[in-house]
Amino acid sequence: MKGSEMSKMTKVYGLGNEPVVGSLTSSKKKDYRITNRIQEGKRPIYAIVFNFLDSRYFNVFATVGLNRVTVYQCLEGGVIAVLQSYADDAKDESFYTVSWACSVDGSPFLVAGGLSGVIRVIDAGNEKIHKSFVGHGDSINEIRTQSLKPSLIASASKDESVRIWNVHTGVCILILAGAGGHRNEALSVDFHPSDVYRLASCGMDGTVKIWSMKEFWPNVEKSFTWTDLPSKFPTKYVQFPIFSVTVHTSYVDCTRWLGDFILSKFIMSHFQSVQNEIVLWEPKMKEQGQGEGSADILQKYPCPECDIWFMKFSCDFHYKSAAIGNREGKIYVWELQSSPPVLLAKLSHAQSKSAIRQTAMSFDGSTILSCCEDGTIWRWDDVTAIASSSG
Description:
This protein is mainly beta. Helices cover about 5% and strands about 45% of the residues. The protein has helices at about 5-15, 215-225, 385-390; strands spanning about 20, 30-40, 45-50, 60-65, 70-75, 80-85, 95-100, 110-115, 120-125, 130-135, 140-145, 150-155, 160-165, 170-175, 185-190, 200-205, 210, 235-240, 245, 250-260, 260-265, 275-285, 295-300, 315, 320-325, 330-335, 340-345, 355-360, 365-370, 375-380.
Protein backbone atom coordinates (compact mmCIF):
# COMPACT_ATOMS: atom_id res chain seq x y z
CA MET A 1 0.00 0.00 0.00
CA LYS A 2 1.45 3.33 -1.01
CA GLY A 3 1.78 6.08 1.57
CA SER A 4 -0.59 8.35 -0.36
CA GLU A 5 -3.28 5.66 -0.35
CA MET A 6 -2.93 5.17 3.37
CA SER A 7 -3.02 8.93 4.03
CA LYS A 8 -6.29 9.06 2.06
CA MET A 9 -7.60 6.22 4.21
CA THR A 10 -6.51 8.08 7.33
CA LYS A 11 -8.49 11.14 6.30
CA VAL A 12 -11.57 9.26 5.23
CA TYR A 13 -11.76 6.66 7.95
CA GLY A 14 -10.07 8.44 10.82
CA LEU A 15 -7.55 5.66 11.31
CA GLY A 16 -5.23 6.06 14.24
CA ASN A 17 -8.08 6.85 16.61
CA GLU A 18 -9.76 3.48 17.05
CA PRO A 19 -8.56 0.45 15.08
CA VAL A 20 -11.00 -0.60 12.36
CA VAL A 21 -12.01 -4.24 12.91
CA GLY A 22 -13.02 -6.40 9.96
CA SER A 23 -16.34 -8.23 9.93
CA LEU A 24 -16.29 -12.03 9.73
CA THR A 25 -19.27 -11.95 7.37
CA SER A 26 -17.78 -12.93 4.02
CA SER A 27 -18.33 -10.45 1.19
CA LYS A 28 -18.11 -13.42 -1.22
CA LYS A 29 -16.18 -11.11 -3.55
CA LYS A 30 -14.04 -14.11 -4.43
CA ASP A 31 -15.32 -17.60 -5.14
CA TYR A 32 -12.62 -20.19 -4.56
CA ARG A 33 -13.18 -23.90 -5.20
CA ILE A 34 -11.04 -26.89 -4.24
CA THR A 35 -9.34 -28.20 -7.37
CA ASN A 36 -6.87 -30.65 -5.82
CA ARG A 37 -5.80 -32.39 -2.63
CA ILE A 38 -2.52 -34.26 -2.20
CA GLN A 39 -1.52 -36.56 0.64
CA GLU A 40 2.23 -35.95 0.90
CA GLY A 41 2.69 -38.24 3.90
CA LYS A 42 1.28 -38.84 7.36
CA ARG A 43 3.39 -36.23 9.16
CA PRO A 44 2.85 -32.45 9.43
CA ILE A 45 3.83 -30.18 6.55
CA TYR A 46 4.99 -26.99 8.23
CA ALA A 47 5.64 -24.63 5.34
CA ILE A 48 4.56 -23.99 1.77
CA VAL A 49 5.81 -21.16 -0.45
CA PHE A 50 5.59 -20.01 -4.07
CA ASN A 51 8.66 -18.73 -5.92
CA PHE A 52 8.12 -14.99 -6.50
CA LEU A 53 11.77 -14.28 -7.38
CA ASP A 54 11.74 -15.43 -10.99
CA SER A 55 8.85 -14.99 -13.42
CA ARG A 56 9.71 -18.35 -15.06
CA TYR A 57 8.80 -20.11 -11.81
CA PHE A 58 5.82 -18.15 -10.47
CA ASN A 59 3.68 -21.32 -10.50
CA VAL A 60 6.33 -23.42 -8.74
CA PHE A 61 6.09 -23.99 -4.99
CA ALA A 62 7.96 -25.89 -2.29
CA THR A 63 6.92 -27.64 0.91
CA VAL A 64 8.80 -28.96 3.94
CA GLY A 65 7.92 -31.66 6.42
CA LEU A 66 10.06 -34.10 8.38
CA ASN A 67 13.48 -34.21 6.67
CA ARG A 68 12.04 -33.63 3.20
CA VAL A 69 11.86 -30.67 0.80
CA THR A 70 9.50 -31.17 -2.16
CA VAL A 71 9.05 -28.97 -5.22
CA TYR A 72 5.78 -28.85 -7.17
CA GLN A 73 4.27 -26.97 -10.07
CA CYS A 74 0.68 -25.71 -10.27
CA LEU A 75 -0.68 -26.46 -13.73
CA GLU A 76 -4.03 -25.64 -15.34
CA GLY A 77 -7.15 -27.50 -14.33
CA GLY A 78 -6.07 -27.91 -10.73
CA VAL A 79 -3.18 -30.21 -11.63
CA ILE A 80 -0.19 -30.30 -9.26
CA ALA A 81 2.96 -31.90 -10.68
CA VAL A 82 5.86 -33.09 -8.52
CA LEU A 83 9.12 -31.69 -9.90
CA GLN A 84 11.66 -32.89 -7.35
CA SER A 85 12.07 -34.12 -3.83
CA TYR A 86 15.07 -33.87 -1.54
CA ALA A 87 15.52 -35.96 1.62
CA ASP A 88 18.08 -34.72 4.13
CA ASP A 89 20.85 -37.09 5.22
CA ALA A 90 19.94 -36.37 8.84
CA LYS A 91 17.02 -38.77 9.32
CA ASP A 92 15.86 -37.04 12.52
CA GLU A 93 15.74 -33.57 10.93
CA SER A 94 12.36 -31.86 10.87
CA PHE A 95 12.21 -28.82 8.59
CA TYR A 96 9.89 -26.03 9.77
CA THR A 97 10.51 -23.38 7.13
CA VAL A 98 11.58 -22.95 3.50
CA SER A 99 12.32 -19.95 1.30
CA TRP A 100 13.35 -19.45 -2.33
CA ALA A 101 16.62 -17.62 -2.98
CA CYS A 102 19.02 -17.10 -5.91
CA SER A 103 22.68 -17.53 -6.62
CA VAL A 104 24.35 -14.42 -8.04
CA ASP A 105 23.85 -15.81 -11.56
CA GLY A 106 20.10 -16.12 -10.89
CA SER A 107 19.76 -19.90 -10.57
CA PRO A 108 17.13 -20.94 -8.01
CA PHE A 109 18.04 -22.11 -4.53
CA LEU A 110 15.81 -23.55 -1.82
CA VAL A 111 16.78 -22.68 1.74
CA ALA A 112 15.35 -24.87 4.51
CA GLY A 113 15.83 -25.03 8.26
CA GLY A 114 14.21 -26.55 11.31
CA LEU A 115 14.80 -28.71 14.35
CA SER A 116 18.58 -29.17 14.09
CA GLY A 117 19.39 -25.48 13.61
CA VAL A 118 21.37 -26.26 10.44
CA ILE A 119 20.32 -24.35 7.32
CA ARG A 120 20.45 -26.28 4.05
CA VAL A 121 20.86 -24.38 0.78
CA ILE A 122 19.75 -26.69 -2.04
CA ASP A 123 20.58 -25.94 -5.68
CA ALA A 124 17.24 -26.62 -7.38
CA GLY A 125 19.04 -27.04 -10.73
CA ASN A 126 21.00 -30.12 -9.73
CA GLU A 127 19.06 -31.10 -6.58
CA LYS A 128 22.28 -31.09 -4.56
CA ILE A 129 23.29 -29.32 -1.36
CA HIS A 130 25.04 -26.08 -2.26
CA LYS A 131 25.90 -24.99 1.29
CA SER A 132 25.08 -25.87 4.89
CA PHE A 133 25.04 -23.07 7.46
CA VAL A 134 25.93 -23.99 11.02
CA GLY A 135 25.73 -21.26 13.64
CA HIS A 136 22.35 -21.16 15.30
CA GLY A 137 22.30 -22.75 18.74
CA ASP A 138 18.77 -24.09 18.42
CA SER A 139 15.98 -24.77 15.93
CA ILE A 140 15.03 -22.38 13.13
CA ASN A 141 11.47 -21.05 13.01
CA GLU A 142 11.54 -19.00 9.82
CA ILE A 143 13.74 -18.16 6.84
CA ARG A 144 13.00 -15.22 4.55
CA THR A 145 14.75 -13.89 1.44
CA GLN A 146 15.64 -10.28 0.64
CA SER A 147 13.74 -9.83 -2.65
CA LEU A 148 15.92 -6.86 -3.68
CA LYS A 149 19.08 -8.93 -3.17
CA PRO A 150 17.89 -12.55 -3.31
CA SER A 151 21.26 -14.01 -2.29
CA LEU A 152 20.63 -12.62 1.20
CA ILE A 153 18.46 -14.53 3.66
CA ALA A 154 17.46 -13.99 7.28
CA SER A 155 16.82 -16.80 9.77
CA ALA A 156 14.84 -16.47 13.02
CA SER A 157 15.73 -19.01 15.70
CA LYS A 158 14.70 -20.47 19.01
CA ASP A 159 18.16 -19.32 20.23
CA GLU A 160 16.64 -15.76 20.36
CA SER A 161 18.75 -14.48 17.46
CA VAL A 162 18.15 -13.46 13.85
CA ARG A 163 21.03 -14.07 11.47
CA ILE A 164 21.74 -12.65 8.01
CA TRP A 165 23.49 -15.01 5.57
CA ASN A 166 24.78 -14.88 2.01
CA VAL A 167 23.71 -18.06 0.18
CA HIS A 168 26.27 -17.48 -2.58
CA THR A 169 29.40 -17.49 -0.38
CA GLY A 170 27.94 -19.20 2.70
CA VAL A 171 28.98 -16.55 5.20
CA CYS A 172 27.06 -15.34 8.24
CA ILE A 173 27.14 -11.56 7.82
CA LEU A 174 25.26 -10.31 10.87
CA ILE A 175 23.85 -11.66 14.12
CA LEU A 176 20.94 -9.59 15.45
CA ALA A 177 20.93 -10.42 19.14
CA GLY A 178 22.16 -9.19 22.48
CA ALA A 179 21.25 -6.36 24.81
CA GLY A 180 18.34 -5.06 22.68
CA GLY A 181 17.45 -8.37 21.04
CA HIS A 182 14.63 -10.82 21.61
CA ARG A 183 14.23 -12.28 25.08
CA ASN A 184 12.67 -15.51 23.89
CA GLU A 185 12.37 -17.47 20.64
CA ALA A 186 12.50 -15.39 17.44
CA LEU A 187 9.52 -16.74 15.48
CA SER A 188 9.32 -14.67 12.31
CA VAL A 189 11.39 -12.26 10.24
CA ASP A 190 10.74 -10.20 7.09
CA PHE A 191 12.78 -7.85 4.90
CA HIS A 192 11.33 -4.45 3.99
CA PRO A 193 10.04 -4.55 0.38
CA SER A 194 11.78 -1.36 -0.80
CA ASP A 195 14.33 -0.36 1.86
CA VAL A 196 17.25 -2.76 1.41
CA TYR A 197 18.62 -2.00 4.89
CA ARG A 198 15.58 -2.72 7.05
CA LEU A 199 14.01 -5.88 8.40
CA ALA A 200 11.49 -6.71 11.11
CA SER A 201 11.44 -9.63 13.54
CA CYS A 202 9.01 -10.85 16.17
CA GLY A 203 8.86 -13.56 18.75
CA MET A 204 7.70 -15.32 21.86
CA ASP A 205 8.54 -12.23 23.93
CA GLY A 206 5.57 -10.38 22.36
CA THR A 207 7.79 -7.75 20.72
CA VAL A 208 8.27 -6.67 17.13
CA LYS A 209 11.69 -5.20 16.39
CA ILE A 210 12.93 -3.27 13.37
CA TRP A 211 16.62 -3.63 12.58
CA SER A 212 18.83 -1.63 10.23
CA MET A 213 21.79 -3.02 8.29
CA LYS A 214 22.81 0.43 7.01
CA GLU A 215 25.72 0.91 9.40
CA PHE A 216 26.97 -2.59 8.54
CA TRP A 217 26.44 -2.41 4.79
CA PRO A 218 30.18 -2.62 3.95
CA ASN A 219 30.09 -6.03 5.67
CA VAL A 220 27.11 -7.06 3.54
CA GLU A 221 28.94 -6.04 0.36
CA LYS A 222 32.10 -7.84 1.48
CA SER A 223 30.06 -11.05 1.84
CA PHE A 224 29.53 -11.23 -1.95
CA THR A 225 33.26 -11.31 -2.77
CA TRP A 226 34.47 -13.41 0.18
CA THR A 227 36.71 -16.26 -1.00
CA ASP A 228 38.22 -17.49 2.28
CA LEU A 229 36.55 -19.97 4.61
CA PRO A 230 33.09 -18.77 5.74
CA SER A 231 34.18 -19.26 9.37
CA LYS A 232 36.86 -16.59 8.90
CA PHE A 233 34.38 -13.91 7.81
CA PRO A 234 34.20 -10.95 10.25
CA THR A 235 30.58 -11.53 11.33
CA LYS A 236 29.23 -8.47 13.18
CA TYR A 237 26.87 -8.43 16.14
CA VAL A 238 23.99 -5.97 15.98
CA GLN A 239 22.81 -5.64 19.58
CA PHE A 240 20.25 -2.88 19.23
CA PRO A 241 17.29 -2.58 16.87
CA ILE A 242 16.29 0.88 15.65
CA PHE A 243 12.77 0.22 16.91
CA SER A 244 11.15 -2.12 19.40
CA VAL A 245 7.57 -2.30 20.55
CA THR A 246 5.32 -4.66 22.45
CA VAL A 247 2.31 -4.62 20.12
CA HIS A 248 0.80 -7.74 21.58
CA THR A 249 0.00 -9.13 25.00
CA SER A 250 1.02 -12.61 23.88
CA TYR A 251 3.52 -13.97 21.39
CA VAL A 252 3.74 -12.92 17.75
CA ASP A 253 4.37 -15.77 15.30
CA CYS A 254 4.19 -14.07 11.89
CA THR A 255 5.11 -10.58 10.77
CA ARG A 256 5.19 -9.03 7.28
CA TRP A 257 5.78 -5.55 5.91
CA LEU A 258 2.94 -3.85 4.03
CA GLY A 259 4.81 -0.90 2.56
CA ASP A 260 6.09 1.00 5.63
CA PHE A 261 3.33 -0.53 7.75
CA ILE A 262 3.53 -3.91 9.42
CA LEU A 263 1.12 -6.85 9.59
CA SER A 264 1.56 -9.02 12.67
CA LYS A 265 -0.36 -12.08 13.76
CA PHE A 266 -0.63 -12.76 17.44
CA ILE A 267 -2.09 -15.41 19.65
CA MET A 268 -4.21 -15.13 22.76
CA SER A 269 -4.68 -18.05 25.11
CA HIS A 270 -7.97 -19.94 25.42
CA PHE A 271 -8.63 -18.08 28.66
CA GLN A 272 -8.69 -14.63 27.09
CA SER A 273 -11.76 -13.37 25.32
CA VAL A 274 -9.81 -11.35 22.76
CA GLN A 275 -9.92 -12.69 19.23
CA ASN A 276 -6.81 -14.05 17.57
CA GLU A 277 -6.07 -11.61 14.79
CA ILE A 278 -3.73 -10.10 12.26
CA VAL A 279 -3.08 -6.47 13.09
CA LEU A 280 -2.01 -3.72 10.67
CA TRP A 281 0.00 -1.07 12.46
CA GLU A 282 2.36 1.81 11.90
CA PRO A 283 5.67 1.95 13.77
CA LYS A 284 6.14 5.31 15.50
CA MET A 285 9.85 5.93 15.96
CA LYS A 286 11.30 7.94 18.81
CA GLU A 287 13.02 11.17 17.75
CA GLN A 288 16.52 9.77 18.34
CA GLY A 289 15.57 6.81 16.14
CA GLN A 290 16.56 3.98 18.45
CA GLY A 291 15.02 1.80 21.09
CA GLU A 292 11.45 1.68 22.38
CA GLY A 293 8.82 3.15 20.12
CA SER A 294 5.05 2.96 19.90
CA ALA A 295 2.55 1.41 17.52
CA ASP A 296 -0.41 3.12 15.93
CA ILE A 297 -2.82 0.22 15.36
CA LEU A 298 -4.82 0.87 12.21
CA GLN A 299 -6.82 -2.26 11.36
CA LYS A 300 -7.60 -5.70 12.71
CA TYR A 301 -8.31 -8.82 10.68
CA PRO A 302 -9.88 -11.47 12.93
CA CYS A 303 -8.78 -15.08 12.43
CA PRO A 304 -10.89 -17.40 14.61
CA GLU A 305 -9.50 -20.70 15.94
CA CYS A 306 -5.93 -19.62 15.25
CA ASP A 307 -4.93 -20.09 18.86
CA ILE A 308 -2.18 -22.65 18.45
CA TRP A 309 1.25 -21.28 17.66
CA PHE A 310 3.09 -21.57 14.37
CA MET A 311 0.31 -20.81 11.89
CA LYS A 312 1.58 -18.35 9.32
CA PHE A 313 -0.39 -16.20 6.88
CA SER A 314 0.64 -15.44 3.30
CA CYS A 315 0.02 -12.68 0.78
CA ASP A 316 -0.04 -12.45 -2.99
CA PHE A 317 2.89 -10.70 -4.70
CA HIS A 318 1.30 -7.23 -4.63
CA TYR A 319 -0.03 -7.61 -1.06
CA LYS A 320 -3.61 -7.06 -2.17
CA SER A 321 -4.88 -9.90 -0.01
CA ALA A 322 -3.82 -12.26 2.76
CA ALA A 323 -4.83 -15.85 3.53
CA ILE A 324 -4.67 -17.44 6.98
CA GLY A 325 -5.61 -21.01 7.87
CA ASN A 326 -6.82 -22.18 11.28
CA ARG A 327 -6.74 -25.29 13.45
CA GLU A 328 -10.08 -26.52 12.01
CA GLY A 329 -8.87 -26.59 8.41
CA LYS A 330 -10.63 -23.37 7.36
CA ILE A 331 -9.04 -20.43 5.50
CA TYR A 332 -9.90 -16.74 5.82
CA VAL A 333 -9.00 -14.52 2.85
CA TRP A 334 -8.79 -10.81 3.72
CA GLU A 335 -8.54 -7.85 1.36
CA LEU A 336 -5.62 -5.82 2.70
CA GLN A 337 -5.93 -2.52 0.86
CA SER A 338 -9.42 -1.55 1.97
CA SER A 339 -10.84 0.05 5.07
CA PRO A 340 -12.75 -1.26 6.89
CA PRO A 341 -11.18 -4.67 6.14
CA VAL A 342 -13.17 -6.88 3.78
CA LEU A 343 -13.33 -10.66 4.17
CA LEU A 344 -13.07 -11.77 0.53
CA ALA A 345 -13.83 -15.43 1.19
CA LYS A 346 -14.06 -18.06 3.91
CA LEU A 347 -12.90 -21.42 2.60
CA SER A 348 -13.97 -24.70 4.14
CA HIS A 349 -14.45 -28.29 3.05
CA ALA A 350 -16.00 -31.23 4.88
CA GLN A 351 -12.78 -33.24 4.64
CA SER A 352 -10.43 -30.40 5.56
CA LYS A 353 -10.36 -30.74 9.35
CA SER A 354 -6.66 -30.66 10.15
CA ALA A 355 -4.75 -27.60 11.41
CA ILE A 356 -3.34 -25.50 8.56
CA ARG A 357 0.26 -24.58 9.34
CA GLN A 358 0.77 -22.18 6.45
CA THR A 359 -0.93 -20.93 3.31
CA ALA A 360 0.64 -19.82 0.04
CA MET A 361 -1.04 -17.36 -2.31
CA SER A 362 -0.03 -17.39 -5.96
CA PHE A 363 1.47 -14.33 -7.66
CA ASP A 364 -1.93 -12.85 -8.59
CA GLY A 365 -3.87 -14.41 -5.69
CA SER A 366 -5.96 -16.65 -7.93
CA THR A 367 -4.64 -19.85 -6.32
CA ILE A 368 -4.40 -20.52 -2.58
CA LEU A 369 -2.52 -23.50 -1.21
CA SER A 370 -2.56 -24.80 2.34
CA CYS A 371 -0.33 -27.34 4.08
CA CYS A 372 -1.68 -29.23 7.03
CA GLU A 373 -0.87 -31.09 10.21
CA ASP A 374 -2.14 -34.37 8.66
CA GLY A 375 0.33 -34.22 5.73
CA THR A 376 -2.13 -32.92 3.14
CA ILE A 377 -1.82 -30.08 0.64
CA TRP A 378 -5.02 -28.42 -0.58
CA ARG A 379 -5.37 -26.30 -3.70
CA TRP A 380 -8.12 -23.71 -4.08
CA ASP A 381 -8.65 -21.75 -7.31
CA ASP A 382 -10.60 -18.57 -7.96
CA VAL A 383 -13.57 -19.68 -10.08
CA THR A 384 -13.79 -16.34 -11.93
CA ALA A 385 -10.09 -16.56 -12.83
CA ILE A 386 -10.60 -20.12 -14.13
CA ALA A 387 -13.59 -19.00 -16.23
CA SER A 388 -11.75 -16.04 -17.76
CA SER A 389 -8.65 -18.13 -18.64
CA SER A 390 -10.76 -20.88 -20.25
CA GLY A 391 -12.95 -18.35 -22.00
